[in-house]
């Protein structure tokens, strides 16, 4: 009785994707309009015109697309705008994460300053703010910056949908892990020697 040689099965290739930053992620970490307004009032800072920023960036992307319309095909325009919008969203997300850390540091410093037994957190000399106050003011500035960049990203995303005709989503690139695939191939080759 002869055994027929079974054809080796091809292993399915699994490609991992590096997740891109979404507008929803930006909304979770950046200040919103209500927070930005409250911070402006309580810290005596200028009120950010979020709607104006959003509209300006929407118009900017639409006008950019109109200017490139003759030189780019439909797919090239989509790719180009995808990258531009991705930069706006990524920038806003980075600012939002920085804002979140600044708020955490301000809360920690303020909580420590509330402890009457700690000398290092007492107010500074007359005319100088305490460390906790400086951290609160810095967090307030970061809140307004994150809100402004969030609105720019929202405007860019809305413009992308207006120009391209479909909702923007981040580009997800495959994770390159060449060493792992070489190791896997070597292991498969070695195991095949056992029959």
Low-confidence stretches: none
| Shape call | flat
- Rg measurement, Å: 26 Å
Q: How many β-strands, per DSSP?
A: 2
* Mean pLDDT figure: 83
Q: Which percent bin holds the helix content?
A: 55-70%
Q: In DSSP terms, counting alpha (H) and pi (I) runs of 4 or more, how many helices? A: 6
Total count of domains: 1
- The percentage of residues in β strands lies in under 5%
Topology:
Elements: E1 17-18, H1 23-29, H2 33-43, H3 50-68, H4 74-113, H5 131-164, E2 173-174, H6 178-192
Antiparallel strand pairs: 1-2
Helix pairs in contact: 1-4, 1-5, 2-5, 3-5, 4-5
Protein name: ArgG
Features:
2 strands, 2% strand, 195 residues, two-stranded antiparallel sheet, mainly alpha
Question: In brief, what are we looking at here?
Answer:
It comes from Ancylobacter polymorphus. Helix content is 65%, strand content 2%.
What does this structure look like?
There is one protein chain. α2 packs antiparallel against α5 (131-164) and α4 runs antiparallel to α5 (131-164). The two termini are 19 Å apart. The protein has a two-stranded antiparallel sheet. The protein has one domain (20-171). The protein is mainly α. The protein is flat, with a radius of gyration of 26 Å. Helices cover 65% and strands 2% of the residues.
